[in-house]
Amino acid sequence: MSDSIEIISWNVNGIRAVANKEALRWIDARDTDILCLQEIKALPEQMPSNLFEKEFTELHINSAEKKGYSGTATFSMIKSDYTSTGKEIDRLNEGRIIETHYDDIVLLNIYFPNGQRDQERLDYKMQFYDDLLAHCEALREEGKSIIICGDVNTAHREIDLKNPKANSKTSGFLPIERAWIDKLISHGYIDTFRYVHGDKVDSYSWWSYRSNARVNNVGWRIDYFFISEDLCESLEDAFILDDIPGSDHCPVGIRIAL
Questions:
Q1: 103 CB contacts (<8 Å, ≥6 apart)?
Q2: 140 three-state secondary structure
Q3: 90 noted as active-site residue
Protein backbone atom coordinates (compact mmCIF):
# COMPACT_ATOMS: atom_id res chain seq x y z
CA MET A 1 0.00 0.00 0.00
CA SER A 2 1.09 3.59 -0.59
CA ASP A 3 2.58 5.74 2.17
CA SER A 4 -0.56 7.76 2.86
CA ILE A 5 -4.06 7.00 1.66
CA GLU A 6 -7.46 8.68 1.83
CA ILE A 7 -10.54 6.59 2.55
CA ILE A 8 -13.99 8.15 2.28
CA SER A 9 -17.31 6.69 3.45
CA TRP A 10 -20.75 7.95 2.41
CA ASN A 11 -24.31 6.75 2.88
CA VAL A 12 -25.64 7.91 -0.50
CA ASN A 13 -29.31 6.97 0.13
CA GLY A 14 -29.68 5.65 -3.42
CA ILE A 15 -26.79 5.50 -5.89
CA ARG A 16 -29.01 6.08 -8.92
CA ALA A 17 -30.47 9.25 -7.38
CA VAL A 18 -26.93 10.44 -6.63
CA ALA A 19 -25.94 9.80 -10.25
CA ASN A 20 -28.95 11.75 -11.52
CA LYS A 21 -27.92 14.70 -9.33
CA GLU A 22 -24.25 14.34 -10.36
CA ALA A 23 -23.63 14.39 -6.61
CA LEU A 24 -20.43 12.29 -6.68
CA ARG A 25 -18.53 14.41 -9.19
CA TRP A 26 -16.52 15.97 -6.37
CA ILE A 27 -14.56 12.73 -6.07
CA ASP A 28 -12.72 13.62 -9.30
CA ALA A 29 -11.06 16.56 -7.58
CA ARG A 30 -9.84 14.49 -4.62
CA ASP A 31 -6.94 12.11 -4.24
CA THR A 32 -9.16 9.39 -2.79
CA ASP A 33 -7.78 5.84 -2.74
CA ILE A 34 -10.84 3.99 -1.41
CA LEU A 35 -14.48 5.06 -1.57
CA CYS A 36 -17.00 3.15 0.55
CA LEU A 37 -20.69 3.71 -0.15
CA GLN A 38 -23.69 2.52 1.84
CA GLU A 39 -27.40 2.28 1.06
CA ILE A 40 -26.79 2.07 -2.69
CA LYS A 41 -30.26 0.55 -3.25
CA ALA A 42 -29.13 -1.10 -6.48
CA LEU A 43 -28.16 -4.43 -8.01
CA PRO A 44 -24.74 -4.67 -9.71
CA GLU A 45 -26.32 -4.28 -13.16
CA GLN A 46 -28.12 -1.13 -11.94
CA MET A 47 -24.95 0.68 -10.87
CA PRO A 48 -24.64 3.93 -12.86
CA SER A 49 -21.57 4.34 -15.06
CA ASN A 50 -21.61 8.16 -14.84
CA LEU A 51 -20.82 8.64 -11.16
CA PHE A 52 -17.41 10.25 -11.79
CA GLU A 53 -14.53 10.28 -14.29
CA LYS A 54 -12.03 8.76 -11.86
CA GLU A 55 -11.18 5.16 -12.69
CA PHE A 56 -10.86 2.96 -9.65
CA THR A 57 -9.10 -0.35 -10.25
CA GLU A 58 -11.54 -2.41 -8.16
CA LEU A 59 -15.26 -2.27 -7.49
CA HIS A 60 -16.98 -4.61 -5.04
CA ILE A 61 -20.77 -4.55 -4.74
CA ASN A 62 -22.94 -6.30 -2.15
CA SER A 63 -26.62 -5.85 -2.94
CA ALA A 64 -29.53 -6.77 -0.70
CA GLU A 65 -31.79 -9.65 -1.69
CA LYS A 66 -34.69 -7.20 -1.43
CA LYS A 67 -34.63 -4.90 -4.48
CA GLY A 68 -34.15 -1.18 -3.97
CA TYR A 69 -32.97 -1.61 -0.38
CA SER A 70 -29.73 -1.27 1.58
CA GLY A 71 -26.55 -2.45 -0.20
CA THR A 72 -22.89 -1.43 -0.14
CA ALA A 73 -20.16 -0.70 -2.68
CA THR A 74 -16.39 -0.29 -2.30
CA PHE A 75 -14.32 1.41 -5.01
CA SER A 76 -10.56 1.03 -4.58
CA MET A 77 -7.33 2.09 -6.28
CA ILE A 78 -5.55 -0.58 -4.25
CA LYS A 79 -5.76 -4.26 -5.14
CA SER A 80 -7.29 -6.36 -2.39
CA ASP A 81 -6.09 -9.85 -1.43
CA TYR A 82 -9.43 -11.14 -0.23
CA THR A 83 -13.06 -9.99 -0.14
CA SER A 84 -16.04 -11.13 1.93
CA THR A 85 -19.67 -10.05 2.34
CA GLY A 86 -19.94 -11.01 6.01
CA LYS A 87 -22.85 -13.44 5.75
CA GLU A 88 -22.21 -14.64 9.30
CA ILE A 89 -23.03 -11.09 10.51
CA ASP A 90 -25.47 -9.91 7.83
CA ARG A 91 -27.75 -12.88 8.42
CA LEU A 92 -30.73 -11.46 6.51
CA ASN A 93 -28.68 -10.93 3.33
CA GLU A 94 -29.31 -7.19 3.27
CA GLY A 95 -26.04 -6.34 1.52
CA ARG A 96 -24.68 -4.58 4.58
CA ILE A 97 -20.99 -5.56 4.58
CA ILE A 98 -18.03 -5.51 2.22
CA GLU A 99 -14.83 -6.70 3.87
CA THR A 100 -11.61 -6.16 1.91
CA HIS A 101 -8.14 -7.32 2.95
CA TYR A 102 -5.01 -5.39 1.98
CA ASP A 103 -2.03 -7.28 3.35
CA ASP A 104 -2.48 -7.05 7.14
CA ILE A 105 -5.16 -4.34 6.98
CA VAL A 106 -8.84 -5.30 6.93
CA LEU A 107 -11.33 -2.63 5.83
CA LEU A 108 -14.98 -3.17 6.68
CA ASN A 109 -17.47 -1.01 4.77
CA ILE A 110 -20.72 -1.42 6.72
CA TYR A 111 -24.29 -0.16 6.62
CA PHE A 112 -25.45 -1.04 10.12
CA PRO A 113 -29.14 -1.83 10.68
CA ASN A 114 -31.56 0.84 11.87
CA GLY A 115 -33.48 -0.14 15.02
CA GLN A 116 -36.37 2.31 14.80
CA ARG A 117 -38.99 0.05 13.20
CA ASP A 118 -39.77 -2.21 16.16
CA GLN A 119 -38.24 -4.24 19.00
CA GLU A 120 -37.44 -7.16 16.69
CA ARG A 121 -35.43 -4.88 14.44
CA LEU A 122 -33.64 -3.33 17.42
CA ASP A 123 -32.75 -6.83 18.62
CA TYR A 124 -31.36 -7.63 15.17
CA LYS A 125 -29.29 -4.44 15.23
CA MET A 126 -27.79 -5.34 18.61
CA GLN A 127 -27.03 -8.90 17.44
CA PHE A 128 -25.37 -7.46 14.33
CA TYR A 129 -23.24 -5.19 16.54
CA ASP A 130 -22.12 -8.05 18.76
CA ASP A 131 -21.42 -10.40 15.85
CA LEU A 132 -19.32 -7.73 14.18
CA LEU A 133 -17.20 -7.09 17.27
CA ALA A 134 -16.59 -10.83 17.71
CA HIS A 135 -15.57 -11.07 14.05
CA CYS A 136 -13.16 -8.12 14.32
CA GLU A 137 -11.61 -9.55 17.47
CA ALA A 138 -11.02 -12.86 15.66
CA LEU A 139 -9.31 -10.97 12.82
CA ARG A 140 -7.10 -9.16 15.31
CA GLU A 141 -6.10 -12.48 16.84
CA GLU A 142 -4.89 -13.42 13.36
CA GLY A 143 -2.64 -10.34 13.44
CA LYS A 144 -4.85 -8.08 11.33
CA SER A 145 -5.32 -4.34 11.82
CA ILE A 146 -8.91 -3.15 11.48
CA ILE A 147 -10.61 -0.17 9.83
CA ILE A 148 -14.41 -0.01 10.23
CA CYS A 149 -16.31 2.64 8.32
CA GLY A 150 -19.91 3.39 7.50
CA ASP A 151 -23.29 4.38 8.80
CA VAL A 152 -23.36 2.99 12.35
CA ASN A 153 -26.89 4.35 12.93
CA THR A 154 -26.05 5.40 16.51
CA ALA A 155 -24.84 8.69 17.94
CA HIS A 156 -22.36 7.88 20.69
CA ARG A 157 -22.37 10.87 23.06
CA GLU A 158 -24.62 13.84 23.77
CA ILE A 159 -22.29 16.06 21.73
CA ASP A 160 -22.92 13.79 18.73
CA LEU A 161 -26.46 15.08 18.14
CA LYS A 162 -28.21 18.41 18.46
CA ASN A 163 -31.10 17.30 20.70
CA PRO A 164 -29.89 14.49 22.97
CA LYS A 165 -32.61 14.76 25.64
CA ALA A 166 -35.47 14.75 23.13
CA ASN A 167 -34.00 11.61 21.49
CA SER A 168 -33.04 9.65 24.61
CA LYS A 169 -35.76 7.06 23.92
CA THR A 170 -35.24 6.95 20.15
CA SER A 171 -33.31 4.13 18.49
CA GLY A 172 -30.06 5.65 17.39
CA PHE A 173 -29.46 7.16 20.82
CA LEU A 174 -30.72 4.49 23.22
CA PRO A 175 -28.48 3.66 26.20
CA ILE A 176 -28.08 0.07 24.94
CA GLU A 177 -26.85 1.29 21.54
CA ARG A 178 -24.51 3.88 22.98
CA ALA A 179 -23.15 1.26 25.39
CA TRP A 180 -22.11 -0.90 22.45
CA ILE A 181 -19.93 1.92 21.11
CA ASP A 182 -18.43 2.19 24.62
CA LYS A 183 -17.78 -1.56 24.42
CA LEU A 184 -16.17 -1.26 20.99
CA ILE A 185 -13.86 1.48 22.26
CA SER A 186 -13.04 -0.51 25.41
CA HIS A 187 -11.85 -3.35 23.16
CA GLY A 188 -9.23 -1.06 21.65
CA TYR A 189 -10.97 0.63 18.73
CA ILE A 190 -10.60 4.36 18.18
CA ASP A 191 -13.30 6.81 17.06
CA THR A 192 -11.02 8.64 14.62
CA PHE A 193 -13.02 11.88 14.51
CA ARG A 194 -12.93 12.26 18.29
CA TYR A 195 -9.27 11.21 18.37
CA VAL A 196 -8.37 14.06 16.01
CA HIS A 197 -10.92 16.71 17.00
CA GLY A 198 -11.59 16.03 20.68
CA ASP A 199 -14.93 17.30 21.97
CA LYS A 200 -15.72 19.44 18.94
CA VAL A 201 -19.46 20.19 18.87
CA ASP A 202 -21.99 20.76 16.07
CA SER A 203 -20.19 18.27 13.80
CA TYR A 204 -22.79 15.98 12.27
CA SER A 205 -23.08 13.57 9.35
CA TRP A 206 -26.85 13.08 9.05
CA TRP A 207 -29.81 15.46 9.03
CA SER A 208 -33.50 14.72 8.70
CA TYR A 209 -35.11 15.90 5.48
CA ARG A 210 -37.75 17.59 7.65
CA SER A 211 -37.87 21.10 9.11
CA ASN A 212 -34.79 22.49 7.31
CA ALA A 213 -32.68 20.35 9.64
CA ARG A 214 -29.55 20.55 7.52
CA VAL A 215 -29.79 24.31 6.94
CA ASN A 216 -30.14 24.75 10.71
CA ASN A 217 -27.54 22.05 11.44
CA VAL A 218 -29.92 20.03 13.60
CA GLY A 219 -28.08 16.79 13.00
CA TRP A 220 -26.58 13.57 14.28
CA ARG A 221 -23.05 12.16 13.91
CA ILE A 222 -23.83 8.54 13.05
CA ASP A 223 -21.21 7.89 10.33
CA TYR A 224 -17.81 6.83 11.62
CA PHE A 225 -14.33 5.55 11.01
CA PHE A 226 -13.11 3.29 13.80
CA ILE A 227 -9.57 1.90 13.69
CA SER A 228 -7.85 -0.67 15.87
CA GLU A 229 -5.53 1.09 18.31
CA ASP A 230 -2.38 -0.28 16.64
CA LEU A 231 -3.13 2.07 13.69
CA CYS A 232 -3.37 5.18 15.88
CA GLU A 233 0.10 6.47 15.16
CA SER A 234 -0.60 6.12 11.43
CA LEU A 235 -3.73 8.29 11.52
CA GLU A 236 -3.06 11.67 9.90
CA ASP A 237 -6.55 13.17 9.75
CA ALA A 238 -10.25 12.47 10.22
CA PHE A 239 -12.87 14.72 8.71
CA ILE A 240 -16.53 15.33 7.87
CA LEU A 241 -17.34 16.78 4.44
CA ASP A 242 -20.56 18.44 5.53
CA ASP A 243 -20.71 20.83 2.57
CA ILE A 244 -21.36 18.02 0.08
CA PRO A 245 -25.06 17.63 -0.83
CA GLY A 246 -26.90 14.77 -2.52
CA SER A 247 -28.02 12.63 0.44
CA ASP A 248 -29.39 13.06 3.94
CA HIS A 249 -25.90 11.97 5.05
CA CYS A 250 -22.61 13.63 4.15
CA PRO A 251 -19.28 11.90 3.48
CA VAL A 252 -16.76 11.27 6.25
CA GLY A 253 -13.16 10.24 5.82
CA ILE A 254 -9.65 9.62 7.10
CA ARG A 255 -6.11 9.99 5.88
CA ILE A 256 -3.83 7.27 7.19
CA ALA A 257 -0.20 6.35 6.55
CA LEU A 258 0.10 2.65 5.82
A1: 1, 81
A2: helix
A3: no
- Structural domains present in the chain: 4-257 (3.60.10.10)
Contact in structure between 135 and 89 (CB atoms under 8 Å): yes
Q: List, in sequence order, every residue forming a beta bridge with 101; answer none if it has no partner.
A: 82, 106
Confidence (pLDDT) at 250: 98
- Element at 183 (helix H, strand E): helix 175-186
Residues 6+ apart with CB under 8 A from 16: 41, 42, 46, 48
pLDDT tens-digit map of 142-191: 999 999 999 999 999 999 999 999 999 999 999 999 999 999 999 999 99
Letter string b/e over residues 35-47, b meaning 16 or more CB atoms within 10 A of that residue's CB: bbbbbbbbeeeeb
Among the listed residues 135, 155, 146, 132, the one whose alpha carbon sits nearest the alpha carbon of residue 188 = 146
> What are residue 100's DSSP bridge partners?
83, 107
Q: Which of 81, 90, 130, 151 is catalytic?
A: 151
Chain Cα centroid distance, residue 250: 11
What's the CA gap between 240 and 252, in Å, rounded?
Answer: 4
- pTM comes to 0.97
The 8-class DSSP code of residue 44 comes to G
The tens digit of pLDDT for each residue in 94-128 reads: 999 999 999 999 999 999 999 988 999 999 999 99
Q: Given pLDDT bands bounded at 50, 70 and 90, which one contains residue 258?
A: confident
